[in-house]
Design goal:
The chain is of the alpha/beta class and about 130 residues long. The protein is built from three helices and eight strands.
Length: about 130
C-alpha cells in the first residue's frame, strides 16, 4: 500500500457552486478556501473538493460518483430539483437499478440501488427518502 485517499478533486469552472450542489446531495457544509478552491466533507466519506480550471468539460468523465439511495426515482427527482440533469431513463437489471445524472457543470454521476434487502443497506441509506 502506498497511502490512502485524502480527497477526491473535481476540476470545474465554479467551485463554490459545485460545493453547494454536492453538499445538498451528500451532506456536509460547503467550505470556500478561495475563489479557486471549495470542498465538502460528506458524512461517512472522504473530502470532495472542487478546483477552478480554465478549460470546460468536453468529454465523458473517466471517473464518476455513485450515490447509494433507497429509492432511485425519488432520489433522481430530488437531484433534478437541485439542479442535476437526468440522462436517459432509469436502468434496471439483476444487480439493481441506477439513474445517470449530470451535475450543474455536466459531470456524470449516478444514484444507485442494489437489489439488496433493505436490512443489509447502511443505516444512512435506510433513513434517506423517508
Amino acid at each position: 500500500m502506498i497511502g490512502r485517499i485524502d480527497e477526491v478533486v473535481v476540476d470545474c469552472r465554479n467551485p463554490a457552486a459545485l460545493a453547494q450542489f454536492w453538499s445538498l446531495v451528500l451532506g456536509g457544509t460547503p467550505e470556500h478556501r478561495s475563489e479557486d478552491w471549495s470542498y465538502i466533507d460528506p458524512p461517512g466519506w472522504t473530502r470532495l473538493a472542487f478546483q477552478r480550471v480554465p478549460e470546460v468539460k468536453q468529454v465523458k468523465n473517466r471517473l464518476h460518483i455513485d450515490v447509494l439511495v433507497k429509492d432511485v426515482p425519488q432520489a433522481a427527482d430530488t437531484a433534478v430539483a437541485l439542479g442535476a440533469v437526468r440522462v436517459g431513463s432509469m436502468h434496471r437489471d439483476s444487480p439493481g437499478s441506477f439513474q445517470v445524472l449530470l451535475d450543474p457543470e455536466g459531470n456524470e454521476w449516478c444514484v444507485v440501488r442494489p437489489n439488496t434487502p433493505e436490512s443489509l443497506l447502511p443505516a444512512q441509506v435506510q433513513e434517506n427518502d423517508r
